[in-house]
């Protein structure tokens, strides 16, 4: 008899397993005693439908962390970004539909225009302002179309963690090289720790009663990039005043960034789960990891 996904013997597949979020999903699954197959980008090309079907077959739950994440690169090669974030996700959804597996797919705040003043609800109209956002929206639509009863889209944003390159690590690393850093203070969002998000993705995948559809997997509360950097410095024992506020105009990028990426979290109640904790609480826990404490220590040596 096939095991149910919430049983200890249910089989999970994690795509994009070498990435920052994928690594934490595997950590959470291992801690819960759940059997998982980990496939990296090199091991599974999601643009190959036959390979995707073969990989999904025999699994109960698929957590898709595979993605084209180069936001600026998507502006110059939108077709390549869409092949992974759109068509590749369609292949995963189709394979799950064919085999009966449930899909937890990670998406992004970039599907919204970023011109709001109140948190975007899960059913708010989408209107991406860049190629990356359009590619990710294509993936969302594929999941919702092909898996209306068993597909979960979890939008997240401003991710950081110990297992990869990210804003928090960069700020601490640069602190060892520079006395002060100018950081954008006019973009608003919800810094989200990958391990906390991974716990929520696994909880959603284990809950067979959770309604299908869109969820927002970001931390509670809100801040700016400058606010995040200053809080990381404060928690790391560094002087927050080393972080100086500036505007987006000082850092012109090929892809437009949404100015407002704050998401609402009402949908979690339908799954019997609480929203993720406040971003400050998550950051405090994350910074106890040796990866971050070593970076903070090095930045502290540069204090004057």
Automatic annotation (TrEMBL):
Keywords associated with the record: NADP, Oxidoreductase
Lineage: superkingdom: Bacteria
Classification via Gene3D superfamilies: NAD(P)-binding Rossmann-like Domain, UDP-galactose 4-epimerase, domain 1
Gene Ontology terms for molecular function: dTDP-4-dehydrorhamnose reductase activity
Pathway in which this enzyme or protein is active: Carbohydrate biosynthesis; dTDP-L-rhamnose biosynthesis
Entry annotated with the keyword Oxidoreductase: yes
Pfam families: RmlD_sub_bind
Residue ranges of every copy of the RmlD-like substrate binding domain listed in the record: 12-288
EC id: 1.1.1.133
Xref: InterPro entries: dTDP_dehydrorham_reduct, NAD(P)-bd_dom_sf, RmlD-like-bd
GO CC annotation, single: cytosol
GO BP, sorted A to Z: dTDP-rhamnose biosynthetic process
Top EC category: oxidoreductase
Function summary: Catalyzes the reduction of dTDP-6-deoxy-L-lyxo-4-hexulose to yield dTDP-L-rhamnose.
Family named by the database record: Belongs to the dTDP-4-dehydrorhamnose reductase family.
Name of protein: dTDP-4-dehydrorhamnose reductase
Organism: Kitasatospora setae (strain ATCC 33774 / DSM 43861 / JCM 3304 / KCC A-0304 / NBRC 14216 / KM-6054) (Streptomyces setae)
Gene name as annotated: rmlD
